[in-house]
Design goal:
The structure is a single chain. The protein is an alpha+beta fold. The protein has one domain. The chain has 3 helices and 2 strands, in the order ββααα. The longest helix is centred in the middle third of the chain and has 27 residues.
Length: about 110
């Protein structure tokens, strides 16, 4: 298992990931860092934990919107492609939740 040093809100976290997923984890951490930065600019530095929770909620909200859009686009009778898209979104959701859990444990 690999470990990656990521930075979110100017704080470093050493996060474990599967071998070969290091670049992906760095890309994901950049998304989280950007979201935390946007929130910090809006509400100020209200604490690392609160900013991470707020960022997780905003990202989860975006994910739910994507799921709803997939359902609206594909309708009730989804074909193989739409089922695959939903499966990908579900997998992304699981990964986001796992990263949020790891970040919370690191605090």
């Amino acid at each position: 298992m690999a470990q990656v040093d990521i930075t979110v809100n100017n704080q470093n976290f050493l996060i474990a990931c599967e071998d070969g997923q290091e670049d992906r984890l760095l890309d994901l951490s950049k998304i989280v860092d950007d979201k935390v930065g946007e929130l910090a600019a809006q509400v100020g530095q209200v604490g690392q934990t609160r900013l991470l929770v707020m960022a997780a909620l905003v990202i989860a909200d975006e994910l739910v919107d994507l799921r709803e859009n997939v359902k609206l686009t594909t309708g009730q009778n989804s074909d193989d492609k739409s089922e695959s898209a939903v499966a990908c979104i579900d997998e992304l959701s699981r990964r986001i939740e796992k990263i949020a859990d790891l970040a919370t444990q690191a605090l």
